[in-house]
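Example record

The entry below shows one chain as it appears in the dataset: sequence first, then structure tokens.
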Amino acid sequence: MRILSHTHGKVIKGSNFMKRVINAVTIALLVMLIAACGRPSVPVNERERENYEKIIAGGIIECAYGLDANGSCLKKGEDGIWR
């Protein structure tokens, strides 16, 4: 079904214009979604990466004072809470 409107003697095909607008908005939203959901660029130090891979493989990490949330061994007197 075509919706026609007469403006200043010109005939404008409304449905074709709306399709273009909807396509443009859809493409813009997809580009923003892809940009927002991209891989984060947070650097991970080598020791944390090694510990992570060891845990994923089913290994056990032995640290005298435990692990922090990032997978690093705690030092004496540390509790893993940032202040």
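Notes for this example: DSSP finds two helices and two strands in the chain. The first helix runs from residue 14 to 36.
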